[in-house]
Amino acid sequence: MDDNLKKIFPFIKPYKSHVFWNVIYNILYALFSTLSFIALIPMMQVLFDKSEKITEKPVYTSIWEITKFGKDYLYYNITHLQITKGPQYALLFVVALIIITFLFKNLFNYLASNHLMHLKNGVLKDLRNTMYNKIIDLPISYYSEKRKGDIMARMLGDVGEVQNSFFSILELIVKEPMTIIFTIGAMFAISVKLTLFVFIFIPISGYIISLVGKSLKSKSERIQYEGGFLISIVEESLSGLKVVKSYNAEKNFKTKFNDSVMRLLKLSNSIGRKNNLASPFSEFMGIIVIATLLWFGGNMVLVEHLPNGKPVFEAAQFLAYMGLAYNILTPAKSISKANYAVKSGLAAAQRVFEVLEVENTISDKPNAIIKESFDKNISLEQITFKYEKENVLTNFSLDVPKGKTVALVGQSGSGKSTIASLLTRFYDVQEGNIKIDGIDIKDMTMNSLRGLIGLVTQDSILFNDTIKNNILIGKEGATDDEIIEALKVANAYEFVKDLPQGINTNIGDAGNKLSGGQKQRLNIARAVLKNPPIMILDEATSALDTESEKFVQVALENMMQNRTSIVIAHRLSTIQKADKIVVMQKGKIVEQGTHEELLALEGTYSKLVFMQSFE
């Protein structure tokens, strides 16, 4: 059994009652599908006045004789109606019998499909929830290597493909095979000789169909990866549309997109050709068998006779037999189609489980501590960290006492922002420890660690929603008054109150209806509403113009009052009032002290101040 098939079972388990009833109703569908053709025999016998005459009411003897009892009881009723009320009533009786068998056949088909629908939709819901939870829980480091578009394709397209294709397997192993089994059973009961021809058709066509479908799974995988790449191009184009247009790079991106679309076209056509071949091929093979049966069966009806002069095969039986033989073709076609669908579903499932099975390297330890307060200090002890090969931080140590503001400065690549990522456990240190009040942050729950920290980054990360809902991320359930108070502290209420709907104004995709300074002040308001004891400002003003920076600087100073703050800065203005300034170079501390002390040293810091180049 395919591993991906086994992996889907836990998702099916909550819906096992739907699987059970789907199987039961499919078996009943298959039974009545066969009976609906068998019921044609007595109807045609009545029409041709060839029906078996049974005048004595049959007696039930045992379960082993139930088929004979059922048949005799049917013909007893037909005979009784013909004698007492005439042939038209007997005909009406057998027509009603056909209607009833077809009614039950379609009723059971509906009930089976209904339970399959609940199963498919339920598993789709659970897969999507599990996938999204995994995507949210995976560490930031996972996404530094992956295309967002590919993850989106797996989340939306591949999960949907599992739902659409994968559950064809229930029809592949229950509905269609049971229809074939019941039909062949009935065909054997009518004529062993003719039925043997059917057994020549099934294995030969099955073998040829399997040969055609062998390469389908690998092509399905390739088409799904290409789909992910295509979504990535669209996502990146929309995210960087200003750059694409300003650099006249539209042609480059259009070419990249068109190339991907062409690859998708070729793969889709290749898969489509094989899918399209399944149905006509199996039908053509079936018609060959039907033609053979017509020849041999026709001879048995028209030419061959028993010693008593009756034909070997009655016309009514032969016509019903041909109906049964054709009844095999539909499930045979469905099985070949379902076989392709399952291969496509397995390829999609593989991509889904690749994400679900990624090990989350940054997670809570068993019995992790819930830390609810910050009392003394943050200490970074002999930290060494690298993203790939080269160390970004080497034996780095720093102590941040409660209530103090510590600024980290230095040129790009000196490791300043890495410290912010390590403190929030977006990444874990390879050597050394980070402790809050003497407790290693790896021993705390991530929820409680991040609950102590407010983070304001250089990028103003806002969502396509109202100002109110963007700020409520800081504290769920906060009142409008609390939100307005946070906006005032962040120096943002002055522009928010003038907006058409105030705090209920939608700010557009990524907050693009606002200026850079306004967006950053909303970010600060979100951190203010959270009201954490530790604040990390990661180059919070570096992307702003001078006027916006003044507004944001006032907001930051308001926020940092009575708080422990770690300020990662490019610009001098944000750090002059810091209790300690730490100057970094290539992952190490080269100087530390107050603004005045460092200027007096006339070293690296004073050069940076002179150049006004905190980058």
TrEMBL record:
Domain ABC transmembrane type-1 residues, every copy: 73-344
**TM regions (residue ranges):** 20-41, 89-108, 180-213, 284-303
One cellular component GO annotation, for this chain's record? plasma membrane
Q: What species is given as this protein's source?
A: Flavobacterium aciduliphilum
| Bilayer topology annotation | Multi-pass membrane protein
Q: What is this protein called?
A: ATP-binding cassette, subfamily B, MsbA
Q: Where in the cell is it found?
A: Cell membrane
**Ranges where the ABC transporter domain occurs:** 378-611
A GO MF annotation of the entry reads:
ATP binding
Which InterPro entries does the protein's record reference? AAA+_ATPase (IPR003593), ABC1_TM_dom (IPR011527), ABC1_TM_sf (IPR036640), ABC_transporter-like_ATP-bd (IPR003439), ABC_transporter-like_CS (IPR017871), P-loop_NTPase (IPR027417), Type_1_exporter (IPR039421)
Provide the alphabetized UniProt keywords: ATP-binding, Membrane, Nucleotide-binding, Transmembrane, Transmembrane helix, Transport
What SMART domains does the record tag this protein with?
A: AAA
